[in-house]
Design brief:
- With 168 residues, the protein is of the alpha+beta class.
- The chain is 27% helix and 43% strand.
Length: 168
């Protein structure tokens, strides 16, 4: 079953379905839905060496610098998304690289501010039970790649709590 078919089969609130199904900025959608600015709370960010799998995905050498960033997106002090991103430092345009290292700027906003044309290639989406997140026992997890000039710029996994916070 493909990404869209899986998403349509889930019994989840419509606003969550829209955020999980967008091929654009979740940050932008959260601001529209909640009427609050979306804040990025960075849990950690550091440079790790690319392993063979990462090197293959990004088209870099094993050991190349990979930026790993883990954040929570909040709107109106409510947490909505837990996200982990990996990005190859050498593949990022200079301005994007600088803003990514500043940590608390959403990826969608960084790409938009630098007029970077990208596409999102969805990899997987699933419902995970008994994986607590922000007080919810059920969550939706989606993984995708952000592609720029036919190369992978970033790999992202987002987790959304499945509960009534999405009944906006």
């Amino acid at each position: 079953m493909g990404f869209l078919e899986k998403l349509k089969s889930f019994d989840i609130p419509t606003c969550l379905r829209v955020c999980a199904g967008t091929d654009g900025s979740v940050t932008f959608l959260l601001e529209i839905m909640t009427k609050h600015p979306t804040a990025v709370v960075t849990e950690c960010q550091h440079i790790i060496p690319a392993d063979e799998h990462m090197a293959d995905i990004f088209g870099v050498d094993v050991g190349a610098d990979i930026n790993e960033r883990v954040v929570t997106l909040t709107a109106g002090d409510v947490p909505y998304v837990h996200a982990r991103s990996l990005s190859a430092i050498e593949k990022m345009p200079e301005g994007v690289r600088c803003d990514m290292m500043k940590a608390d700027i959403p990826i969608g906003r960084i790409l938009r501010d630098h007029d970077i044309e990208t596409r999102r290639d969805f990899e997987n989406i699933e419902i995970l039970e008994e994986s607590p997140l922000f007080g919810a026992n059920k969550l939706l997890s989606r993984s995708y790649r952000i592609v720029h000039h036919n190369g992978v710029l970033m790999c992202i996994n987002e987790k959304f709590p499945v509960d009534d916070r999405w009944c906006l």
